[in-house]
Amino acid sequence: MNFIERPKQISVGVLALQGAFQEHIHMLQSIPKVSSILPVRTAEQLRSIDALIIPGGESTTIALVAEHSGIWENLKEFVRQKPTWGTCAGMILLANEANNTKKGGQKLLGGLDIKVNRNQFGSQIDSFESLLHIPQITSSPEDPFPAVFIRAPTISTINSLEVEILAKLGHNVDETDASTVVAVKQGHLLATSFHPELTNDNRIHKYFVEHAINYIVSGQNGKKEISLKDGNQNTQKPT
């Protein structure tokens, strides 16, 4: 087998239909391994990128705009095949199931074998910041990631052993338990219920870019998926 050389840089798109896409673009500008950054609004733009970020915003609105603009089916195809990261509303859209949806239901891109609870922590006035220990990006519990939660979803159920838990809340928030899962990875898909783009910390963006590069190489070399973490995946369902 002829192994493909590891790319030094990749092109990353940010879905720019609604929500905090400009903040993700700004954060990506600080990462040397990103060759180009593209606000994505069309199928043609989607075809030109290596990896995609679906930002926070309003998941129902993003889905409606995507459907009306004719990009929805292209997004579903992209998510099935290429590295994609969903933050907050983006995590909802990547989930296979969602609770607390608006009247009429919620269109989902799917791909992650999880069920999410929309707006777990209440309205925007209930927003908060939490310091998370994420072993894949933080060197120790003394070097946590400042996670911003705004009308954030949480993961209520994990339905596959392939889903790797990256972070839990770490402390109780009102009636939400400290063990609640707020970040996961499954194959080429990554999801966080919080907003890394609203901080000055680009470590999760760097992690996603590195993850995307590794996945691209593994796919070209005939492997189905990769793991960036040494050791076993967390296979427990959240309590």
From TrEMBL:
UniProt: L-glutamine binding residues: G57, E58, S59, R118, I150, R151
InterPro entries linked to this entry: Class_I_gatase-like (IPR029062), PdxT/SNO (IPR002161), PdxT/SNO_CS (IPR021196)
Origin superkingdom: Eukaryota
Pfam family, one: SNO
Keyword entries, A-Z: Glutamine amidotransferase, Hydrolase, Lyase, Pyridoxal phosphate
Gene Ontology terms, MF aspect: glutaminase activity; lyase activity
Entry similarity comment: Belongs to the glutaminase PdxT/SNO family.
Name of the protein this chain belongs to: glutaminase
